[in-house]
Amino acid sequence: MFESEYTDVTLSSACLALLGVDFESSAEVQEGTLQFGTSVDRTLTAVVASLPDADKASYVRGMLDPYAFEVCTDDPALTYDGEPVDAQVTVGESDVTGADEADSVRLDATIDDSAVSVIGQVAQVDNNLILVVGWDPSTNERNSPLATQMFIDAIAGES
């Protein structure tokens, strides 16, 4: 999705991991059920993994945190057409409620006078992991947490 949304842009593997890229390749995730989807307008993607138990979910989430968050923040390695691009990556707690753990990662940059903004949410609810990424700078600040909250509520049976 990243490559189709931002053509000729590359990003470090740590940052891509926080956005759910190659998430399904984890052996622990393969033990559970994994669903991936893209919104009709392609502004959001979601990965929801239901693992055998909460310990496995914590382990997989732990593979992202703190290493991927730290590496992505320190050096996102964002390039456009092979040239480095200055990017700001901020990581913090997500505003979603009802999750055991929830973090947010935001990447902002300007490429050819166009804003690049990606906001990801990583949340754990019991044995479930939720990764939602908003790709559209005009809607992602609002829609990424809202979509994450929708998944949390549905998983918790509060929908």
From TrEMBL:
It comes from the Bacteria. This is Uncharacterized protein. It comes from Microbacterium sorbitolivorans.
